[in-house]
Write a structure and sequence with these properties.
Blueprint lengths: L1 E5 L3 E6 L8 E3 L6 E3 L5 E6 L4 E6 L1 H16 L3 H12 L4 E2 L4
Amino acid sequence: MQMLYDSDTFVVLHLQPDLGLPAEILLADGQTSAPGLPRHGFEIVDKRSGKEVYLDGSWAELFQQQIQQWQRESPSEEEVEDTLERYAQLAQNPVVMH
């Protein structure tokens, strides 16, 4: 887990898979193996509402592209917060422990 952003309003964490996991997993039958698919994701915590949203799959890929754009363009804090606000509108899970 890596903290990417922390402000008075938002926290953004990048959660990466444990690369020490086996490259293959056993399916429900206990005999058939399949390739393991380590996935990463992003957790965006809205400190004002006390809610968080976890982005994985295609949402995580889109957010990763946004981060890469920020790295190229060095946006203002206001621009970053505006973008995070749009993602935070998806937040429905209350933050229980952080």
